[in-house]
């Protein structure tokens, strides 16, 4: 059986990936003409969209494509002994809700019919033709590249009896991302190591890879709407003057700006919507994403971080080789079974969503802020930048390692290849002993210190 990633544009060369046997637990300025693939590794045929010069890129917040923030290096004299990899799905089409909002805004512009600014002239014969929610070919390529990179970094951990253990949350785009990652991994090894996707976690039940269980969780609507109302009005006025009769609202502006990102990634050439906005306006657009994630499942949401606790307790179990101790969103049946939650692997790969990864960051204590994010506008010096935290194909990697002449086991965390300081368990250098790291995770080890119960009362 072969699975094809849905594509709504002319064919481009790409791999088609076979679905392996798996355990389903659903218990069931502007880039001209053609953006091109950059072959970053001819050996594996990897490709990456060249975005330099696309208006607003990479400041598309959670709609930005992954980029490595630092050169990857293992600490001198040390060797990695275990890897825990969690990755957001690759680039996708807009969700159903976003599609409806984008279409509404586009329809207003198209219905105007007459344009006083030539940058809008493309609308005279424009047709919106994006799909909904599915992984893009570019997103599949991101995952394939990620799998190949993981093999190249960690091949020394593998043998025939210890393949990577791979899990995915149950959304189609997440499953497809995981399968493309495993194919990239296999291809990089010349098919010597072909890890299966072993567990798919139903998003209808306990799932540490999806933020779906906290019934009383709040949202970020108030904060994002306040900022949109602050930055968008001049743009709304300008575009309504350029397209008389369109009657765009401030909310429409955000949706049209997001279309720049979605269409560019889907068609792999710059969208005509990108030049409608300035680079400075895209910085304001991106801050909507920063606020959304901070007040959605991050530090600004009382019951946001608790949704990352289950994953952290699973991480602690893997690092220590001890059974999972958790009373939040883990599936105790799966986590107590070596077939569905082994503790003897050197490489684990999980596939998830951006909101869940934000919750994990916050529960861990990564990217702390001196003050809550302001709805009056972005502040210099903040580390909470969503295009660096959870772009498409974002990844957090927790490595366990040992060093020459030292029997102590250490841990470090990399987010999009940037080593995190881990000031909460060490000296800020990014290195903690495993013992100190586990000890630092009091919030997770104590099941959210009462926050989990607040989800349901």
What does this structure look like?
This protein has one domain (2-454): Phosphoglycerate mutase-like (Rossmann fold). It is 34% helix and 12% strand. The strands form two sheets. Strands 3, 4, 5, 6, 7, 8, 9, 10 and 11 form a nine-stranded mixed beta sheet that branches. A two-stranded antiparallel sheet has the order 1-2. The radius of gyration is 22 Å and the shape is globular. With 457 residues, the protein is of the alpha/beta class. A hairpin with a 2-residue loop joins strand 8 and strand 9. Disulfide bonds join 78-403, 214-455, 260-274, 425-432. It holds the Pfam family His_Phos_2. This is Phytase A.
Features:
457 residues, alpha/beta, nine-stranded mixed β-sheet, 14 helices, 12% strand, disordered N terminus, glycoprotein, acid phosphatase activity, Histidine_acid_Pase_euk, hydrolase
Short description:
It contains 14 helices and eleven strands. With 457 residues, the protein is of the alpha/beta class.
């Amino acid at each position: 059986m072969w699975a094809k990633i849905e594509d709504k544009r002319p064919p481009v060369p790409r791999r088609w990936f076979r679905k392996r046997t798996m355990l389903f637990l659903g218990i069931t300025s502007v880039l001209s003409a053609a953006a091109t693939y950059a072959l970053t590794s001819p050996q594996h045929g990897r490709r990456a969209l060249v975005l330099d010069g696309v208006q607003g890129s990479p400041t598309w917040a959670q709609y930005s494509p992954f980029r490595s923030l630092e050169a990857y290096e293992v600490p001198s004299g040390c060797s990695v002994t275990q890897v825990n990899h969690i990755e957001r799905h690759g680039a996708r089409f807009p969700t159903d809700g976003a599609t409806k909002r984008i279409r509404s805004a586009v329809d207003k512009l198209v219905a105007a019919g007459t344009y006083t600014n030539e940058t809008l002239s493309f609308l005279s014969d424009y047709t919106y033709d994006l799909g909904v929610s599915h992984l893009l070919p570019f997103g599949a390529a991101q995952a394939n590249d990620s799998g190949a990179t993981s093999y190249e970094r960690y091949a020394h951990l593998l043998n025939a009896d210890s393949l990577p253990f791979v899990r995915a949350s149950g959304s189609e785009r997440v499953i497809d991302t995981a399968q493309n990652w495993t194919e990239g991994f296999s291809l990089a090894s010349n098919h010597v190591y072909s890890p299966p996707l072993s567990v798919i976690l139903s998003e209808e039940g306990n799932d540490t890879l999806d933020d779906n269980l906290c019934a009383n969780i709040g949202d970020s609507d108030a904060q994002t709407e306040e900022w949109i109302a602050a930055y968008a009005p001049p743009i709304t006025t300008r575009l309504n003057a350029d397209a008389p009769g369109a009657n765009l609202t401030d909310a429409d502006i955000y949706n049209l700006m997001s279309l720049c990102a979605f269409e560019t990634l889907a068609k792999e050439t710059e969208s005509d919507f990108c030049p409608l906005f300035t680079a400075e306006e895209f910085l304001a657009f991106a801050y909507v994403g920063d606020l959304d994630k901070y007040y959605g499942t991050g530090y600004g949401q009382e019951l946001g971080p608790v949704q990352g606790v289950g994953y952290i307790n699973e991480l602690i179990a893997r690092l220590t080789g001890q059974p999972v101790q958790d009373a939040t969103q883990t599936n105790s049946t799966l986590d107590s079974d070596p077939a569905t939650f082994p503790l003897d692997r050197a490489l684990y790969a999980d596939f998830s969503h951006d909101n869940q990864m934000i919750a994990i960051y916050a529960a861990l204590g990564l990217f702390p802020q001196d003050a809550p994010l302001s709805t009056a506008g972005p502040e210099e010096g903040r580390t909470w930048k969503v295009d660096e935290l959870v772009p498409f194909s974002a990844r957090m990697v927790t490595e366990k390692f040992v060093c020459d002449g030292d029997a102590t086991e250490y841990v470090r965390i990399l987010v999009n290849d940037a080593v995190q300081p881990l000031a909460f368990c060490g000296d800020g250098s990014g290195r903690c002993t495993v013992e100190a790291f586990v000890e630092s995770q009091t919030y997770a080890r104590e099941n959210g210190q009462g926050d989990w119960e607040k989800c349901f009362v």
